[in-house]
């Protein structure tokens, strides 16, 4: 239906990365029709989620823990091809195979209460007749439920340091990294202790004049296999922060860095010799509290990302601690809103599971809503007669 130019659907999925496609698959498998019962909105120019933006030297064999989407495995991938091409092509085939009809590029501007307009003025059903209004660059949608799968790529975190504005060299975030050539002959300071920091540092070191690696905390390198028990323990730590209403840390931040042969060689050669975080920047480099200095031409901030959920601000889902409390994938402040690929589900396998769980929960909500609506309609008809 369409009321005053607003398209009405049962579910809106925002984002077509791993979590969004998993949710769309489970909606389709449950009998919901794309563009009739649900719609998938993605602001990226092409399929691939955040993977399409990865640097070209990140080949598929360097990707850790890429889990297949539900219903279709990724086979015969060339390990030497850029991961952006391999996974982008896989996501594209997945969308076509299951007919998910992703709308792109579409920017979601805000999600808010739907307000008036027939038939939303009468408080009926389990949801009280309330719909969410999703305002987008292609028009507005009215939906009974929302699956937000926007990930973090659009919100790179830039730390602030005294003297940052005085530095005379280049400063960039790892999201802007496009390979090592831009760093040839430069003195480079890499800030951050995650996987991207390590991978990019190891690529830059052979061509740079000098590299310095700094992290807030000493990095933890994980030896041996990482099984289900360790994975559950790591996810539990992230879930605890979410339960407390705090912004989630990434799952990777509590698992440590996997000790590969390449990392072992880099440690032995001194490339991964870590220094504590500096105190401030100067026009020519960085300075520590004890007076130590390092001259630099480039500062590369591999400092991670934050959840891209600003469009949900009108719903006031955040707790005083800055996070969003959840039960499973459902936000506690609004049962219609589910976050997948957020917090404990911010991994490829976690995103798959979260997409399935969100759809299962939403189907129960919609069923209850429809049953109560029918009962109230029948009661109204009996009274009228």
UniProtKB/TrEMBL annotation:
Checking InterPro entries in the record gives:
Auxin_biosynth/cation_transpt, FAD/NAD-bd_sf
Q: What domain of life does the native source organism fall in?
A: Bacteria
List UniProt keywords, sorted A-Z.
Answer: Oxidoreductase
Q: What is this protein called?
A: NAD(P)/FAD-dependent oxidoreductase
One GO MF term, please?
A: monooxygenase activity
Q: Is-annotated flag, keyword Oxidoreductase?
A: yes
